[in-house]
Amino acid sequence: MSHLYNELDVKAIQESYCYLFPVINKKLEWFWYPPDKFDWLCLTSPFHSRPTFDKFQALDADLQSLKLTAPVQEYKAIGQGLSRLAKKHGVGYSVGLNPWADYMLLLASQTDALQEVVVVVAHNWNPLVKKGKILPNSPLYKDNPCESDDGKYAFVFEPFLSINHTACVLFTNIFPHFIEAGKGARDGPSLVQRNFIGQKNGMKKGLIWTLGAINPSIRIRGLITLGAPAFALLSDRSLTDTVESIRAKLRRFPSLTTDAYETFLVKGTAIPWLPFFHPDSYEVTNAPESSERRDDYYKLASALR
């Protein structure tokens, strides 16, 4: 089995994005495809214009042939080179918004699961060049979120992959781009993020624009946010207090209703919102009750109806 998408896969992914987001306004276009003056922001591809398969193949070929002159070459120079390659071919390092969204939308297109959607939101994508001079994958690489990063995200997606669930999962980040080359994924907001947003609540607005652009014929079953950084951009409350409050409701009322969740308002519509800990966090990896928290997440996510 090939680890790369073929031409039919790419077309199916693009069609799924276009069905999910039939119209993109200027604000959302700026949020997903920012101007060239912002460095490193080359993760997304303009799926509405349906770039041809050969563009992705060309970027893949250039990426595979890229030679690093380590240890002399700096991360910034490597990142600028990667960004230039993307601009040269008119596509980014994913078919649409990011590699995990690509994978999940292709899966949804194959299982006729595009009638309902669950939106999963984390903080940001990896640095454009990870420490150790690790480059991004090809935009054609099949990046299964249940297997990436040693499978630590698998429990997030598993509630929606059973035969009893027909919802599409849209994965995105509240900052929907790479961060600066060589920067740690857990570091504070990068210079790029601060310059890119340039206004209070800018990333929250971007999420609202994203949710508001979803095809009105597709029901948004719920919103899931992962980790404190994303949560802090959307709420003034403590993530731990909020998650534990929701878990307490689960204990009292095992047959959950939407009242157990937070709500996120988009165009006057209250979307059920499940904030949760990041899959890499202490609370769900090594802390006491970590396995119980993952089990509760499964119940809570499965109950989003």
Structure in words:
The protein has 305 residues and is an alpha/beta fold. It has one domain (7-302): Uracil-DNA Glycosylase, subunit E (3-Layer(aba) Sandwich). Helix content is 39%, strand content 12%. The protein has 12 helices and 5 strands. A 5-stranded mixed sheet has the order 2-1-3-5-4. Helix 6 (154-157) links the parallel strand 1 and strand 2. Helix 1 (7-20) packs across helix 5 and helix 3 (53-65) packs antiparallel against helix 4 (75-89). It is globular, with a radius of gyration of 19 Å. 41% of the residues are buried. The mean pLDDT is 88.
Q: Compute the CA-based radius of gyration.
A: 19 Å
CATH overall fold name:
Uracil-DNA Glycosylase, subunit E
Number of helices: 12
**Percentage beta strand:** 5-15%
Order of helices and strands: HHHHHEHEHHEHHEEHH
Strand tally is: 5
Order of neighbouring strands in the sheet with most strands: 2-1-3-5-4
- Give the integer mean of the pLDDT values: 88
Keywords, separated by commas or semicolons:
single chain; 305 residues; alpha/beta; Uracil-DNA Glycosylase, subunit E; five-stranded mixed sheet; 12 helices
